[in-house]
Fold:
Amino acid sequence: MSGEIKNIAVIGTGVMGSGIAQVFAMKGYNVNILDISEEILKKALQNIAWSLNKFVEKKRIRKEDAEAALSRIKPTTLYEEAVRDIDLMVEAVPENIEIKKEVFRKVDGLAPPHAILASNTSTLSISEMGRATRRPDKVVGMHWFNPPQLMQLIEVIKGEGTSDETVNKIMEVAKTLGKTPILCRKDVRGFIVNRILGLVFNEAFWTYYRKEASMEGIDSSVKYSGGFPMGWFELCDYVGLDIAYEVGRVLYEAYGERFKPCPEVIEPLVKEKKLGQKTGAGFYDWSKGRPRIPFELSDEYDYERSWAVAVNEAAWIIHDGVADPESIDTGMKLGTGWPQGPCEYADKKGLNNILQKLTQLYDKYKMEMYNPCPLLVDYVKNGWLGKTAGRGFYKY
Ligand SMILES: NC(=O)c1ccc[n+]([C@@H]2O[C@H](COP(=O)([O-])OP(=O)(O)OC[C@H]3O[C@@H](n4cnc5c(N)ncnc54)[C@H](O)[C@@H]3O)[C@@H](O)[C@H]2O)c1
Structure:
């Protein structure tokens, strides 16, 4: 356990909250869980018990440990009871700023003054949540990945008012949970991982929209030639088309033309409520399990295009002072299972080659996502071409 942090409250016990509560309880923290009804809390406890049992079946924990973890979780619908003795709250209510601000305001009024208030938001402003409290220095982003029990990564986000002490404590707490935290130094939309993934998705959507490759062809190339764990359409189905659509909208609002969404690819499916795996259909039919991605089409799409836009966005993240290359690479490997991070990849491939690819694409399509980031252009001008030059994103 981390320093004085022992007692946790998890507010909102849906997909993410119940997993987060379980992870804390498995590491010995006392966890109060709060939701809007007894019934939802009962369901959350059942889900946690089911998941703990899976850990026992797989011999990853002992039965006694599972029972002890479960006994450390206390459900309640009363805020006062949930937060009066806590050191840390993790909020995982629906992705709506008004609901979140209300939770932060309430918890701020009831929790001890030293308590840190964290949000698991994927897209909303941590600074805004901070401003809803009288302790913005203790409000921070703690962005988990789904499923929290299995995913290694946590993005820690510093809001405008967040103190370094708070950030450091959350980084430490994440490590006590056996997770790898990465620091997102600014409260920017999409943080690190969703920002890069969002652009890679967009590149694929536009390519498909222009009929330059089929959906199966893009996925096959990305998977079998590029070595990524899933194709982009398959992954989008897995994430949920409603979530991907909303993230895309937020990124466009935040960064403008670079994230120009592709019309007529996701939106019609979202309108039809074909949201991916969870509804049985999205880009693919999931009714009979995971879709088969045909191997034969693995040359249809140039997966280097995915890397080029990913490296470009990584360059923007560094340019904007949001994160360092190591955090970006760790994020993409642990958050999405990429075989390498974009900065490592660029350093191996040669930054000049990535820049050339982007320039070609930009000349051809005149789209901002291909317009090379000035940082990348400068690195190449400086001769920082990557590993063989002794300096690229990293120093060798
Ligand atoms: N699902 C994912 O893959 C994922 C990944 C990372 C982050 N997130 C973020 O985590 C948060 C939760 O997402 P989720 O997928 O677990 O949602 P969910 O809908 O599964 O769960 C939300 C829970 O919050 C409860 N709730 C609603 N209003 C509440 C209130 N006022 N007070 C307390 N509880 C309330 C709901 O009853 C529900 O149980 C969102 O901010 C989302 O963006 C989700």
About this structure: The two ends are 36 Å apart (CA to CA). Residues 11-17, 34-36, 40, 92-95, 99, 103, 120-122, 144, 146 surround nicotinamide-adenine-dinucleotide (CB under 6 Å).
